[in-house]
Amino acid sequence: MENNNEVVLLDLWASMFGMRVRIALAEKGIKYEYIEQDIWNKSDLLLQMNPVQKKVPVLIHKGKPICESLIAVQYIDEVWNDRSPLLPSDPYAKSQARFWADYVDKKIYDLAKKVWARKGEEQEAGKKEFIEALQLLEAELGDKPFFGGDKFGFVDISLVTFYSWFYAVETIGNFSIESECPKFISWAKRCLQKESVSSTLPNSERVYEFLLDAKKRLGIE
Amino acid sequence: MAQENVKLLGVLGSPFVCRVQIALKLKGVEYEFVAQDLQNKSEELLKYNPIHKKVPVLVHNEKPINESLVIVEYIDEAWKGKSILPTDPYQRALARFWAKFIDDKVFGAAWKSIFTIDENEREKNVKEAQKAFQFLEDELKGKFFGGEKFGFVDIAAVYITFWIPMLQEIAGLELLTNEKFPKLCKWNQEFLSEPTIKESLPPRDPIFAFFKGLYEKIRASAK
Questions:
Q1: What average pLDDT does this structure show over A197-204?
Q2: In terms of domains, do B93 and B73 share one?
Q3: B150-189: per-residue pLDDT in tens?
Q4: Which of the listed residues B78, B111, B138 is the one where a domain comes to its end?
Q5: Residue in A closest to B62 by C-alpha
Q6: Mean pLDDT calculated for residue range A93-117
Q7: In terms of domains, do B106 and B165 share one?
Q8: Is residue B70 domain-shared with residue B94, that is, in the same domain?
């Protein structure tokens, strides 16, 4: 059994990137020490462990840092490879999982930000592009229960964490994601039936308040 | 031997395509290079990469793989032979981190340093690019990023060996200098002299002419 000190996670409760790592750790049943970070006042530990980007999450295993959430999730899958695989074993299926997780990384955060950080025409354009991206993902999901097929996996982990931000984005953008992307919402709810996901995703209203505060601090109206 | 049908949709002169070519060569994979016209995208490209509509696209037995770093990892796993990524999970995580760093921090800033007209924007990007080079300079501990043999990060960084010196010559800009980045410049030379790399790079003259033309066109349109 791992000593608590062997696995440490530097994270922010509201970070959809950090949530990915928490879900992966939960899926594997790994005990770890969680150290909440104040991203407005970065700790020496964070700056020491992630000097390049100075961001959360940072997974620390036996004193060695792993940065970038999707890289940390793959690391977790490769080290604790005796249980609950997160990526498929077939190289082609694996490449498709990596491709879609990369798509999520490239698009979803920035498009959501366009909605919560902009106003007027820019925001409207952001809403449209955001919905289109979610609809593209819906098409990729198809009739499968999860992106990986029958099992919850890498792509699901990379994406479901954004669901906790939907209420905030909908409220600020004054639109309904469910009405445009019902399949996406039912997939997210299916994921939430898993303990690893439901115990990780924070309360949506708390996230909304966090975002309003973040906007103030960043000087975004 | 299983029937292998390997196609690479690409353009000569793309550093992203080059990454894939290096990986295929390293594994000794025979493939057909299908040159693309990005101004007039082929049905094949749109069929195999409907999401991003970009090159490179690797098509293995009719199944497409997109995004250069995803393709390189796929090549490493689908074919035996020389390893591209390390076997140790921690070293693999580091390799993926630095490859992503190059994608996120080097390409955009370097490109904008060369091609932006606005002086302030250019200066900002030069600073960004050099900040990224400094991180890489500090990270380089051996002959290659991969150690004694080149690996995933070196392949990801091929842009720095062939393209950056060429682009900075065209723009008369000193981005990557021996003075500021001696280890990175030495790595440049070592990497370029590896046979696998030499044989995977496009011919210099037509690529130089292409970027010079692009540079002059952009400057002319600004006037």
A1: 98
A2: no
A3: 999 999 999 999 999 999 999 999 999 999 999 999 999 9
A4: B78
A5: A92
A6: 96
A7: yes
A8: no
| Spatial distance between the Cα atoms of B147 and A47, rounded to a whole number of angstroms | 26
Residue to mutate among A73, A99, A110, with most B CBs inside 10 A, is A99
Using a 10 angstrom Cβ sphere, with 0-12 exposed, 13-18 middle and 19 or more buried, the burial of residue B94 is: buried
- The C-alpha atoms of residue B43 and residue A105 are separated, in whole angstroms, by 27
User: Residue A141: what are its φ and ψ, rounded to 5°?
Assistant: -65, -45
Supply the CATH number for residue B197's domain: 1.20.1050.10
- Measured CA to CA, the distance from residue B195 to residue A173 in angstroms comes to 55
Checking if the pLDDT of B21 tops 60, the result is yes
Q: Tell if the CB–CB gap between A91 and B77 is shorter than 8 Å.
A: yes
What does the block give as tokens for A59? 């997974």
- Which structure tokens are listed for B75? 């090549």
Residues B60 and B102 in one domain: no
B53 lies in which domain range?
6-78
Residue B105 shares a structural domain with residue B202: yes
Does residue A85 have a cis bond before it (omega within 30 degrees)? no
Count of domains forming chain B: 2
Structure tokens at B204: 């210099």
- How confident is the model over A107-137, as pLDDT tens digits? 999 999 999 999 999 999 999 999 999 999 9
Q: What does the pLDDT look like over B48-98, one tens digit per residue? A: 999 999 999 999 999 999 999 999 999 999 999 999 999 999 999 999 999
**Which residue in B67, B74, B97 is closest to A71 by CB distance?**
B97
- Predicted confidence (pLDDT) at residue A191 exceeds the cutoff of 60: yes
Inter-chain contact B93–A94, Cβ cutoff 8 Å?
no
Entry field: residues in chain A: 221
pLDDT score for B210: 94
Q: Please report the ipTM that was assigned to this predicted complex.
A: 0.95
The two structure tokens encoding residue A147: 């992106």
- Specify if B1 maps to a domain: no
For the record, the structure tokens of B70 come out as 């995803």
What share of chain A in percent tops pLDDT 90? Answer: 97
Residues in B whose CB is inside 8 Å of some CB of A read 51, 60, 63, 65-67, 70-71, 73-74, 77-78, 89-90, 92-93, 96-97, 100-101, 135
